[in-house]
Amino acid sequence: MTGSLTPAPLRVGPESTVPPLRVGNMSGFYGDRISAMREMLSGGELDVLTGDYLAELTMLILGRDRLKSAELGYAKTFLRQLEDCLGLALEKNVKIVANAGGLNPAGLADAIRELGARLGLSPVVAYVEGDDLMSRVSELDIPADAGVPVTANAYLGAFGIARCLDAGADIVVTGRVTDASVIVGPAISHFGWGRDDLDALAGATAAGHVIECGTQATGGNYAFFNRGEIADPVTPGFPIAEISADGTSIITKHAGTGGAVTVGTVTSQLLYEVTGARYGGPDVVTRLDTAVVEQERTDRVRISGVVGEPAPPSTKVSVTCLGGFRNEVTFLLTGLDIADKAALVERQFRAGLERQPAQLDFRLHRTDHPDADTQAAATAMMTVVAWDPDADVVGRAFSDAAVAMTLSSYPGATPSGPPGRGGPYGVYIPAYLPQTEVPHVAVLPDGTRVDIEPPARTQEMGDGHASDGLGADGAPLDAYVPPSGPVRRRPLGDVLGARSGDKGGTANIGLWAGDEEAYRWMLATLTVDELRLLLPEAADLPIERYELPRLHAVNFVIDGLLGKGVAHGYRWDPQAKGLAEWLRSRHVDIPDSLTAPVPTTADAARAAAEENA
């Protein structure tokens, strides 16, 4: 514990005549809106346009591409976007930085040059490499039963990107860098930051973390999408970070685009896929518990006060393995005696398999309701999932067992669709190496290779509990006195926002309150024990709770909820995207005095009218 975190006077960076850097984002994942590059380039002024294309599942997809051809391994949609927009980007002098290089940044750089020549253009292209450690996979601590390694990539930082931009690159592509690095690198180049400018690096990292997931910062995947805060939720615009020399930033979007940028949308994204108060990276540890998020005006939210600490001596290596093969089938169980019908399915299915898979799960989803007025509402789902190293065990033999039993099983027996032939599944393994042992190379436009040295000063990150047990005013949690007045049993989502996500087999749920009173109620009410009661699927799993007082937020980290990661397909919601909404739907006793942290439609209209008056 670090003592009171009563908000201190905000730090003011040194006087700087360098203008803010306006960085837009055009992609949050491989498959995001393909028109976003043109939307961002034509929608307003930018200095830099960035894109995040990589995730754990994406690395497995690219790894399988590379097994087919050594020339593949990068995000092909990025090239399609450039084919449409390269001339516009060069005309507007907007630098483009993206991690679309995946497993083959050199190949993507060559493809961009070839595209430019075909279009009669001459983009200056550079790339960053060194993250691909497949040749050293034997050095990593990988469980023997994980399967066959397909990719092994270290998370690199932002200084290689900056060196490429310093050399005059119009486009920089990378392999596996941290998600925020594509935003932080341009800021390093623009402001001339060094390794010791920790607060500035941390502030830019916070801004990068907010915008790297695209429209999640502008109203996408947002808890209060329907309460008047998001004026146009149909097609949210992509976000922009205006980063200043001291690392403070304004999160915004192009005028006239959909969605909204509010304290809520920015806070929810700050909480996305993080653990505790300390957000670690290869360049800096960002103290999320020091961030102050304030609405400056409509669609402009300031992030300030972010403190940086030295980076840890080790960096994470993301390893994906082909673990074997999986298949599944879902049976529809309608009407009465659902539990007995499900039990019969399991007995018959097991009896019909010639060979038992290495792992076989039967999952009954009680989506049915008594005395239902539609057949869908009267129907539960029984999903059978199998995993095995042998494709034949979970292939045709598995599907045949599902089909063969349908006329001899429970009344109304039917699958939701024809069983498939199954396919390979992946396993995600996090590993770690000292930063001094991970190459980081900037390949400049003229082909010069520049080694990027790791930070000279590092320190162990600790457990992330920078502010346990304290309210935003620094008072001990046990000093909390619940508000007087009536309480009602109602959904948590009436008063709390939340967002959830995944890191391998681990899920996180970040929740935030609208004011100090609601925050202190949340701290006192949503303990780890209470979360186990509200989310029975997590009852027997390791859970940590972290407090972020300045954000009026807490973050729960649930280890093992997602099995071996999204590519393993262990759970109904394999990336825990809906986990937060499940929690928000659970009912607890809530004081009537607590309200949701969003304006009503009338409040929003009144505020806009006052601003425009």
Give structural notes.
The protein has 613 residues and is α+β, with helices and mostly antiparallel strands. 25% of the residues lie in helices and 25% in strands. The chain starts with 20 loop residues before the first strand and ends with a helix. The longest helix is centred in the first third of the chain and has 16 residues, at 76-91. An eleven-stranded mixed beta sheet has the order 11-12-8-7-1-2-3-6-4-19-20, sandwiched between helices. The model is unreliable at 1-14 and 600-606 (pLDDT under 50). A hairpin with a 5-residue loop joins strand 19 and strand 20. The chain is globular, with a radius of gyration of 25 Å. It has helices at residues 36-42, 56-68, 76-91, 105-118, 159-166, 181-191, 198-211, 263-270, 338-352, 396-404, 516-525, 528-534, 579-585, 601-612, and strands at residues 21-25, 48-51, 95-98, 125-129, 148-154, 171-174, 239-243, 249-253, 278-279, 285-287, 292-297, 300-304, 307-309, 314-334, 359-365, 379-388, 414-415, 423-434, 441-443, 449-451, 487-491, 497-503, 506-512, 543-548, 553-558, 587-591. Helix 3 (76-91) crosses helix 4 (105-118), helix 6 (181-191) packs across helix 7 (198-211) and helix 7 (198-211) crosses helix 8 (263-270).
| Continuous helix count | 14
Q: SS-based structural class?
A: alpha+beta
Distance between the termini: 47 Å
Report the major sheet.
11 strands, mixed
The percent range for helix content is: 10-25%
The strand order across the widest sheet is: 11-12-8-7-1-2-3-6-4-19-20
Work out the number of β strands.
26
Uncertain runs:
1-14, 600-606
Approximately how much beta-strand content do the residues carry? 15-25%
Mean pLDDT: 91
**If you compute it from the alpha carbons, what radius of gyration comes out, rounded to the nearest whole angstrom?**
25 Å
Coarse morphology: globular
